[in-house]
Amino acid sequence: MKKLFTQLIRFGIVGAIAFLIDYAIMIALTELAGINYLVSSGISFTISVIVNYILSITIVFKPKKDANKTKEFIIFVFLSVIGLGLNQLLMYIQVDILAIFYMLAKIVATAVVMIYNFITRKLFIEDHTKG
């Protein structure tokens, strides 16, 4: 249980770093470059996924020793693309349907996607063998 708690803390720290990168880029692209929030959110999310992958496999999850790193990255990206779809759907619903300010909507969407990310990465990336 202590291992899981430590892993959750590390995941939270990595997630916070990725979120700050995601959030800052999204705001810069939207506010400074005048790019639509859905486009800027997609770009910022993609950049943060790359940072998140590197930090996740070095700090949070113990990847499978014999795993093909290319295949592992493809799985990570595939899971992240699903997370991006979830992020975009939540952003659209909150901003365009519920009229929530996009900066606040991003925080809510990120929280939901973070839960999805932890569960799927724990299931598909982490080594579950004993020893």
TrEMBL record:
Location in or out of the cell: Membrane
Any Pfam family: GtrA_DPMS_TM
InterPro entries xref list: GtrA_CellWall_Glycosyl, GtrA_DPMS_TM
Transmembrane segments: 7-29, 35-61, 73-93, 99-119
Presence of the UniProt keyword Transmembrane helix in the record: yes
Domain GtrA/DPMS transmembrane: 10-125
Keywords for the protein's UniProt record, in alphabetical order: Membrane, Transmembrane, Transmembrane helix
Main localization, broad class: membrane
Membrane topology: Multi-pass membrane protein
Entries under PANTHER family matching the protein: PROPHAGE BACTOPRENOL-LINKED GLUCOSE TRANSLOCASE HOMOLOG
Protein name: GtrA family protein
Source organism of the structure: Diplocloster agilis
